[in-house]
Automatic annotation (TrEMBL):
UniProt protein name: Glutaredoxin, NrdH/YruB family
PANTHER family per record: GLUTAREDOXIN, GLUTAREDOXIN-LIKE PROTEIN NRDH
Domain of life: Bacteria
Database matches in Pfam families: Glutaredoxin (PF00462)
CDD domains linked: NrdH
GO-annotated biological processes: cell redox homeostasis
GO molecular function: electron transfer activity
Domain Glutaredoxin residues, every copy: 4-59
InterPro entries found in the cross-reference section: Glutaredoxin, Grx-like_ET, Thioredoxin-like_sf
Organism, as annotated: Malaciobacter molluscorum LMG 25693
Amino acid sequence: MKPIALFTIPNCKWCEKAKAYFKSKNIRYNQIDVSRNKQALKDCQKHGCNGAPVVLIGNCWICGFDKEKINKELGIK
């Protein structure tokens, strides 16, 4: 499976939904708090993402919790 990074901020309901979704599917991911990691925040913004969460699957940046795009990228039906 492709490596997954989940860029989050504290107290974000969509970030929590993304984490719960990955947990429900037994999908491992690396969580990065962009409020503490300024370089990660710049990387997200460089790819056109201005909100949270941001999901990085392999080389594919997904802005927001877009379950359809996440499933497509992971090959989940």
